[in-house]
Amino acid sequence: MFARWPRFVHCLVLPAGLLLASGWGLGTYFETSDDLAIIQLVRGITAAVPVSNLHFYFHGLAAVLAVLCQQWPAVPWYATLLFVLLYGATALAFAVIDKLLRGRVPAWQITLLLLLFYSTLWLEHAMWFHFGRVAVLLAGSGLLFAAQRPTQRWAQTLGLSAFGLAWLIWPGAADVALLAVLPGLWWLTGRRAAPLIVAAIAWAVVAGLALHLLRPASSQAYRQLHQQATALNDYRLYRLAPASATDSLGLRLAASGMLGDSTLVNEALFRRAAHFEPTYFGQHVAPAKLQATVFGLIREYFPALLVLATLAAWVLAHADMRGRPGFWLALLAWAGLLLGLGTLLRLPPHLALPLLDLLVLSAVVFVLRDEMESERRAVRALLLVLGIAALPYTVKTLRRHQQLRAEQHRGLQQLRQMRRHTYPAAVVVTDVLDEAYKSQSPWGRPRLGEGVGFLSVTGWYTADPSQAQLRRYLTGTTDMVPALRQLARRRAAVKWYLTPATARLLNQQLARDGQSGQQPWQLVARERTGAGSSTVPRLYFPTDKPVE
């Protein structure tokens, strides 16, 4: 009926142009320190050798990244891999929308819809970088793409490959994406989607079982400790009941992300001093988390909610759609998924918006899957709603861009300060790296000095088996406190650049050695600063002499 532009314009050229334009205009910034921690490990910056097994993420891919970083260290392989996959996810999502509307509405309206969809619902993924976004979007978009083409074997292979690759990056994210798009898969092709769904579930089950069976004992212990620390810090599931001063210290270390001392932070600690009490959680923690989730979704992602509300209103206004209970059951299930994640676990930005995008795509599928006389009015309604949301969302995006640029500048200043204070030490003990790199560009290479070894004492990976190997490489022992004591004896060869809170916790760990008859050490700041600078990192020096 309408003139058609070549399919590759919408499905390949437009996604590439939008990603490049947003990256050039707004930049790209780490959302959290997770990506930086992974880059440091696979590059061997915070490990004795490049790490090829990350235990939770990038199964199989970490080994490839480690080899590439060794062979061509100047290339930002991590960012390149994830942005190529983000482009793939964007192209798949655009292809789903294009196929729904091709030949049914004018080509310029499809283009405008894709532009507004990207500007209000997708732009954040390119600007605020996190591997979790890529995993969710790639898994969900791949499955929708395959379900839309049930008779084309290449499309089934491509969609399942996208899901499998996303699962390797982050299994949990891919599994949640599968749950989110199940209604959309069914609405696209009905029972013909069953083989695709079964294949995706089979992959998740078989691959998950294989990982569990092949996981070594050290990896299993690390996984268990990581899950307990996450339940404490991120999910706030535990009610704390320390039975001794040792338990209290262990819990403070765990709350600060200092998981390396297995004598203090271990599974036994959580069994003794941290308990999940459903009544307490339901009365004191869950209501606040639920409220924060609801207000956070409304404040941060109102365009997606506005589109979903518009589509729901459209279904209500049409009797032939209104009587189909599947749509309303899906809405309830989606609400339960989002609110359940936010209340029982956590719903950070790198999960919230990708999931909302998949929900929007699935709801658009329901409304536009059938031929109808009012389809052009439905598209115009979506264009109007997205156009209205675009202005305030643009203002919000520009404000976030300014905040991220400011955080990036502060982080660079911290890194320069650390380099100036610690040069030319061969080893630096620090807790600064993760915070300083939080909003840095994924395309930038870490500028930390050549030949410097970093022992990071905070972060989710401090209990990683690679960190014990690093301590053995640096000191000859894997135990945290004896390793710190050995580093303290090396004087000028080792620099300690820490925030005061971390230094106090390290001093409490070292003081326990004094109680057990070992030579006591403590960290003392070289420069005295005002009380208002309690979070500013500074240089410390170890001493075994009494300090007044």
From TrEMBL:
Transmembrane region(s): 47-68, 75-97, 130-147, 167-188, 195-214, 301-319, 326-345, 351-369, 378-395
Protein's UniProt keywords contain Hydrolase: no
Keywords of this entry: Membrane, Transmembrane, Transmembrane helix
Protein name: Glycosyltransferase RgtA/B/C/D-like domain-containing protein
